[in-house]
Design a protein that fits this description.
single chain, alpha+beta, four-stranded antiparallel beta sheet, 43% helix, 165 residues
């Protein structure tokens, strides 16, 4: 058991070194939105249109190059989990969130009626904007979405960066 723990600790240390090296390159989004509200709108459109989430939701490479270097050491699961395992956790959470969003909106026309935001959080070079509530209109019905957990801001723009059930 002790040997297994040491392997995990070494793996995490190697992963942290990789993340720190990537952070030195000051990566940025491949594509982004001009506002946090537009980032949410573009992301929801991408989900509902059944497109792959590669334009308006962060890719794994963007997580490695932009988000992780700025959030490492801030008390997330990333601090203690090997990247391989962390990626599996994120993919599972993301899959559940996408399914929930699709089930709530059901490919119908929708409009964002309001988004209430918490005070921005600073993570190194990133600003994190956490929605308190996102209300959308689908027909005559108001639906509250809580699957979008964070929109990140860099110098180039905004992008949905964390989703979950």
């Amino acid at each position: 058991m002790e040997a297994e723990n040491q392997k995990v600790i070494l793996r995490v240390e190697k992963d942290h070194q990789l993340i720190k090296e990537k952070g030195l390159k000051k990566g940025d989004w491949i594509k982004s939105s001009k506002s946090k509200e537009l980032a949410v709108q573009n992301f929801l459109n991408e989900v509902i249109q059944n497109q792959s989430l590669n334009e308006y939701y962060v890719s794994w490479e963007e997580k490695l190059n932009v988000i992780f270097p700025n959030t490492l050491g801030k008390g997330t699961l990333l601090d203690t989990t090997p990247l391989v395992e962390y990626k599996k956790v994120l993919e599972t959470r993301e899959s559940f969130a996408i399914t929930e969003i699709k089930n709530r909106i059901q490919s119908k026309k929708f409009r964002i009626s309001s988004i209430d935001w918490e005070k921005p959080r600073i993570y190194g070079e990133l600003a994190g904007h956490k929605p308190k509530t996102i209300k959308i209109l689908v027909g005559n019905q108001v639906i509250v979405l809580d699957q979008i957990k964070m929109v990140f801001e860099t110098k180039s723009g905004y992008k949905v960066g964390v989703i979950g059930p």
